[in-house]
């Protein structure tokens, strides 16, 4: 609309200016020639007085030569040639000629022509303003008409369920023009994205289903082995296998829930408080931390066991479990402290810590810090970050003055 209005403004402005300057040019050219002919006729007459008397009532002749001819003192200030001037509130055309040592002035009233000229200019000015207003209105109407299908297409593309369902093609609602071609391109892109999401869902579902079967077999075998008399070292290995199977079950459930990404799914139900999850994860990780010779403490600075709000046990357990596992894995001396806050928790360790330059990238997939060890792939903290993002939680990491680092998770959206 702005471009349309500016184009009209420029074109109308040039056209109006052309009319203005053309009128002045033609007026000056024609009147100069006419008054030059009149001056020739007057000066060629034997009697200047007789010639002056033959002029019409709107034309007067002045000269500083001859007898009985009126002369005007101010005419001496004009240069030779054609002039437009005003004197005493009246508009005149003046033509001055210097000849034979004398000055001759022909003065013609132009009040009537000036009025018509002003009326013409007013009409041009009004036409210019009306054309700009009309261009603005027409540009607005055209912009609405042109943009309406584009706005509709943008609204349709923004629908959240379009990727999650087999919606009708967008191109069916548009003509075979540029907007229709754009809608067809969106259809093709959305179709490929939908197919990719479907393949990911099927893969995740199949993997989760297929993994559960061998995990159940391993868990059953561990139970059978645990029921038999075993040496201390053998029993430790069986218990380690059982713990790993339980961790795998938790990971499979977590990955499956993240792949679904449907908050309305019953699997996302809030079924545990923060205190219950803390109790569950402490019972799981405290023995391993202490078995490594580390001190493990759970603190409640605000009293109680956190807030009474309910959270999804699988997702919150995965976040807390991963942080406790990392703290145990990267700490050789000192201990691990789990502090339960009113709306969250923090895990502190006395390990090697994370350099400040790496704290920004430590949550990215497949990124391992400079102090990484073991055969991990750098997916633990990435998984924690994805869970927090999906649930509206916030996680941050800071270095501790005495060494080690602190991971803090806020379960409040504010």
UniProtKB/TrEMBL annotation:
Its main location: membrane. Residues 176-198 form the HAMP domain. GO terms for molecular function: phosphorelay sensor kinase activity. The chain crosses the membrane at residues 6-26, 119-143. Residues 206-414 form the Histidine kinase domain. SMART domains: HATPase_c, HisKA. This is histidine kinase. It comes from Alcanivorax dieselolei (strain DSM 16502 / CGMCC 1.3690 / MCCC 1A00001 / B-5). Pfam families: HATPase_c, HisKA. Its EC number is 2.7.13.3. It is found in: Membrane. One of its GO terms (cellular component) is plasma membrane. It catalyses: ATP + protein L-histidine = ADP + protein N-phospho-L-histidine. Keywords: Kinase, Membrane, Phosphoprotein, Transferase, Transmembrane, Transmembrane helix, Two-component regulatory system.
């Amino acid at each position: 609309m702005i471009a349309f209005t500016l184009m009209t403004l420029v074109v109308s402005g040039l056209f109006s200016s052309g009319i203005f300057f053309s009128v002045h040019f033609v007026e000056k050219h024609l009147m100069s020639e006419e008054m030059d002919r009149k001056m020739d006729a007057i000066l060629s007459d034997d009697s200047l007085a007789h010639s002056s008397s033959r002029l019409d009532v709107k034309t007067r002749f002045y000269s500083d030569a001859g007898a009985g001819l009126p002369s005007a003192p101010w005419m001496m200030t004009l240069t030779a040639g054609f002039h437009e001037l005003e004197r005493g509130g009246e508009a005149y055309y003046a033509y001055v000629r210097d000849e034979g040592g004398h000055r001759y002035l022909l003065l013609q009233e132009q009040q009537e022509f000036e009025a018509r000229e002003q009326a013409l200019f007013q009409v041009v000015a009004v036409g210019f303003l009306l054309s700009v207003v009309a261009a603005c209105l027409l540009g607005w109407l055209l912009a609405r008409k042109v943009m309406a299908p584009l706005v509709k297409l943008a609204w349709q593309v923004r629908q959240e369920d379009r990727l999650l369902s087999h919606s009708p093609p967008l191109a069916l609602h548009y003509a075979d023009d540029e907007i229709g071609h754009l809608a067809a391109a969106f259809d093709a892109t959305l179709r490929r994205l939908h197919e990719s999401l479907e393949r990911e869902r099927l893969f995740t579902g199949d993997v989760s289903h297929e993994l559960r079967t061998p995990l159940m077999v391993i868990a059953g075998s561990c139970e059978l082995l645990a029921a038999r008399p075993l040496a201390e070292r053998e029993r430790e290995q069986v218990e380690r296998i059982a713990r790993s199977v339980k961790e795998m079950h938790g990971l499979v459930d977590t990955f499956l829930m993240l792949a679904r990404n449907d908050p309305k799914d019953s699997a996302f139900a809030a079924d545990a408080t923060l205190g219950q999850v803390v109790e569950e994860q402490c019972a799981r990780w405290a023995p391993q931390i202490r078995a490594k010779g580390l001190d493990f403490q759970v603190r409640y600075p605000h009293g109680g066991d956190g807030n009474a709000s309910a959270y999804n046990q699988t997702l919150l357990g995965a976040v807390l479990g991963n942080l406790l596992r990392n703290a145990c894995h990267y700490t050789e001396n000192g201990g691990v402290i789990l502090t339960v806050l009113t709306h969250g928790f923090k895990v502190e360790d006395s390990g090697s810590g994370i350099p400040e330059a790496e704290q920004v990238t430590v949550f990215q997939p497949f990124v391992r810090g400079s102090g990484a060890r073991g055969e991990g792939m750098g997916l633990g903290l990435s998984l924690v970050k994805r869970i927090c993002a999906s649930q509206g939680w916030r996680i941050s990491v800071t270095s501790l003055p005495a060494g080690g680092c602190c991971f803090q998770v806020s379960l409040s959206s504010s």
